[in-house]
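Notes continue from the previous slide.

Worked example: a multi-chain complex. Inputs as given:
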Amino acid sequence: MDKVITISREFGSGGRELGIKLAKELKVPFYDKELIGLSAEECGLSEEKFLKYFEKIPVLQNTLENQLYNPFSLFYEIPMSDQVFLAQTRVIKKLAEQGPCIIVGRCADRVLEDSINLFIYAKMEDRLKRMNSLNTGTDPEIMEHKIREVDKKRKEYYQYYTGCEWGKAQNYHLCLDSGLAGIEGCFNTVMAYLKCI
Amino acid sequence: MDKVITISREFGSGGRELGIKLAKELKVPFYDKELIGLSAEECGLSEEKFLKYFEKIPVLQNTLENQLYNPFSLFYEIPMSDQVFLAQTRVIKKLAEQGPCIIVGRCADRVLEDSINLFIYAKMEDRLKRMNSLNTGTDPEIMEHKIREVDKKRKEYYQYYTGCEWGKAQNYHLCLDSGLAGIEGCFNTVMAYLKCI
């Protein structure tokens, strides 16, 4: 496998776990949260300040930032969330140039042109079961609320920065329900797919 | 594999070809166009009359049929397209009761509750290449128009009768881009997935 593999995932479906397994098997670097430090450095921000704008879409409020966002303003400058996204994009492209790797999230499937794109998801009950088995100690109702919130944000973020529909099968090469096959099953399936391309 | 496998597919992506290969490997019956005769029989129509309403959604015109469609009318009766869909639904359920099989299209993934649902798709250029390799002799521009037309109809039909979004990954257990891996690659991938469930 000489291509970058991107993994988009519903929260709690095990996309990160699958990515780690694939990276180990394929002996390639794995990037998920690791991208935060690299991207903060790229745009010259502290990790703390970077995280304030990370994976967020610009919110227009009646603030100085809003005035600066007005492209007709003399003081116009790119909103911080967009700067953060652009820095992340540059980092993803640089990493891809270095050779095959696994990248989780961050719209990497649309940033790169020649990657193999996976989407991992599962029914709510399967995701709750999985999260419970990880001993997060979180009440199932609170966990379900969190899952819906995170998915909503991921969907909006993806739509905002790519103009594409998050979770639409045609945006990916292979989409897998991890609830039925488990992460081990998804791993075997992805490996079978990779052997054929 | 003791479950029914349903295959939804974009036109020209090779979903039918994949279904035939899977049915042969798993030694189970295969139903695609075969459903037409069975469903026509189920609703007591000739195949010719059945095909007039097959895979269509009711069109409300200023005709007697329109007047009959009005649920407040004394003469209300279920539109033929709906009767045809319902007959097809009964046939699909009966077939599933008889044991594992492969069913292509016909919203079977939503009709059945415990099936394994696949979605097969490919980029337009890959589908045109595939259709060309099948020596259909059709001009690529005409073929592209046909592909878009058929996909549009399938999408509307699925949406109308299931209320779900055609091609949304979460509606299926496994979604595969056949352009990259080919039908043989998709076959190997599906077999790997089935071994894990």
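Summary box: The interface with chain A takes residues 10, 116, 119, 121, 167-170, 172-177, 180-182, 184-186, 188-189, 191-193, 195-197 of chain B (CB under 8 Å). Residues 1 and 194 of chain B are 7 Å apart (CA to CA).
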